[in-house]
Here is the input.
Amino acid sequence: MFLENTVNHSEQFGWIEVICGSMFSGKTEELIRRLKRAQFAKQRVEIFKPEIDTRYDDEEVVSHNDNRIRSTPVPVSSNILLLANDVDVVGIDEAQFFDEEIVSVCNELANRGIRVIVAGLDMDFKGNPFGPMPALMATAEYVTKVHAVCTRTGNLANYSYRKNLSDDLVLLGENEEYEPLSRAAFYRAMHQEREKEIAAQSKDISSNTTEDLKQ
Here is the structure.
């Protein structure tokens, strides 16, 4: 159960909340919801996102359904400590794109008595743990895993399948590049990719062998 209030109110430490899941699962939407509720309660809120994330807006954090909130883009996580002064709540979006220092940054903020809310992809397009997210989830007091709906089966989806052939770990994109898949659908898609790669390699070998025989 998610609790926002501690029992011992004399304790001055904050805490870390992590919202994770696949693409199109509503991570940013939930982050914005919590931050706007804090703003409504007249709490001092600062929001940060990685400078490379310019998909919807250079400065705002924007969800897929165009819900948005003002944020500060930063190139490295250490900048957050310098900018998060005199605040009650810090929000961080797309945490998987930050360097590993984001973990110590979030813990330092929580130790100052700040509520830290972090959103990010827990797995990359290959289904592997993504960047600093596993360490953030391990040190957080609260972890919320949200799910998308699989575009192929209609079941809950927790994988972000990349539809193009790029092998770059960081590739910003939307519906054209990614689709949310269930475990079964993701396994089948990856299996089909491997079969295509093997077939292409066999074709190349066969073609090279034929050329050699002609010579």
In short: The helical segments are 27-40, 78-83, 102-111, 133-139, 183-214. The radius of gyration is 21 Å. The first helix runs from residue 27 to 40. The mean pLDDT is 85.
